[in-house]
User: Fold this.
Amino acid sequence: MPEPTEKLNGTERAAVFLLSLGEEDAAQILKHMGPKEVQKVGAAMAALSNVSRTQVDEVLNEFVETVRNQTALGVGSEDYIRKVMIEALGEEKASPLIDRILLGSNTKGLEALKWMDARSVAEIIRLEHPQIMAIILSYLDSDQAAEVVNFLPKQVRSDVIMRIAALDGIPPSALAELDEILERQFASGNANVKSSGVGGIKTAANILNFVDTAIEAEIMETIQDMDAEVSQQIQDLMFVFDNLADVDDSGIQALLREISSETLILALKGADENVKEKIFGNMSKRAAEMLRDDLEAKGPVRLSEVEAAQKEILAVARRMAEAGDIVLGGKGAEQFV
Assistant:
């Protein structure tokens, strides 16, 4: 029996809407979406089945009603965009997103990088000045930036992360240099852009959250030697596996529905007892007992496998937090997963 439309999330509703259009119209809409949005909506479209006529009608009616209640007045104005985003998300969450939106409207080269695989981006920027690397990585989504860091020369990784942490707005001269580089690569660019709030300690911490554990440890050790204060600030903002103990019960339950049993077992092999109890406490009694038995039966596993599983779960948690599905708990001072 098909799911009622009220149980469909926003991505699924978008998928139903696109599936109800012709191929050409749907393709035109997808052209205006970013790579992550295309991937999410595309996956939802592929996963949908047994969509009823009633569901389609309800989604289309909702779309028409939403459009009818909107006005084009003020659209395109930077002040209007800022006010709407801040009202919707709060200033802390909205500020970096606003900067990306407004900056991205004038920097097609940067947007093009988001569609490229990490190795290709690293190849494009590997011979550039570390400051340019820092600006580019700050603009990318944290998980993509982390993958790029993995492909950068070992000797520049820590320097780039330090520069990201130190960024306090992007000066026009730096953007001009960046646009010149991207113009050579993509035949596009515009240096006439205001200073953006891209970068900072939080951006550096977010990127390191996604970096391979061994590389993360190496970078943090170097940063500690370079500037102990910056190192501590980054660590304070990183969300590590042990911090899952601070996530509320509903968040943990939602997270558990998104990860496989095998990944969870591997991750818990090296987890703090508080995290284990948090997980067990949000499962049925029988499921918790089975998980405990599986953990005991698993036997010794490589530390690298445990770390990889924990990183995978953390990546899911961050994606869910970004989508507003869960709220991550307090940021810990633990350095490594």
In short: The domain at 106-237 is CATH 1.10.220.30 (Annexin V; domain 1). DSSP finds 20 helices and no strands in the chain.
